[in-house]
Structure to design on (174 residues):
């Protein structure tokens, strides 16, 4: 529900377990289980201390692209725990934290959802998430129809309008 209506591409990943459980139990990292737990705990503690959040329980990631060139986009992760740290700029009840001192890369946190990416895309996603603007599910675009059909039944899906992507004029020659 946070993907803006004008998205030209959406990739969605839903996990059968949290990222930390998958790393421990699904053999993603071929390491000793005890070492895996220690690494996860160290990463979680580091994240909480420096960022204020814990993303170890994330179960879904959605990445979207919007607009004609220059194309923007963002990633939406959920659920996260804690409250994002940093110098925040609040607009429409949402705090936007600038990353790495860059003006155009921001993170927003709304409840247990984190949105990270290009500033205008993050703001558009926050607006859609709050119901202040249309999201892709409510749009009439082909991407919206395809994403709405795929996402609820898939662990991984991609929907894109190639005609709106900023590709070279002759992509096969590049």
């Amino acid at each position: 529900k946070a993907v803006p209506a004008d998205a030209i591409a959406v990739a969605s990943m839903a996990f059968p377990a949290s990222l930390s459980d998958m790393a421990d139990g699904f053999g993603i990292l071929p390491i000793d289980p005890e070492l895996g737990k220690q690494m996860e705990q160290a990463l979680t503690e580091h994240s909480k201390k420096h960022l204020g959040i814990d993303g170890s329980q994330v179960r879904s990631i959605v990445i979207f692209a919007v607009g004609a060139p220059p194309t923007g986009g963002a990633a939406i992760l959920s659920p996260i725990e804690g409250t994002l740290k940093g110098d925040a700029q609040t607009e429409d009840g949402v705090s936007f934290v600038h990353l790495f001192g860059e003006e155009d890369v921001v993170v927003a946190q709304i409840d247990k959802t984190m949105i990270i990416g290009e500033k205008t895309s993050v703001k558009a996603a926050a607006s859609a998430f709050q119901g202040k603007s249309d999201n892709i599910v409510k749009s009439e675009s082909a991407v919206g129809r395809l994403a709405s059909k795929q996402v609820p039944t898939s662990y991984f899906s991609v929907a894109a309008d190639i005609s709106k992507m900023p590709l070279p004029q002759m992509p096969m020659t590049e």
Q: What stands out?
A: The beta strands are 7-14, 53-54, 60-66, 72-78, 81-82, 88-91, 94-98, 105-110, 113-118, 156-160. Residues 26 and 55 are 18 Å apart (CA to CA).
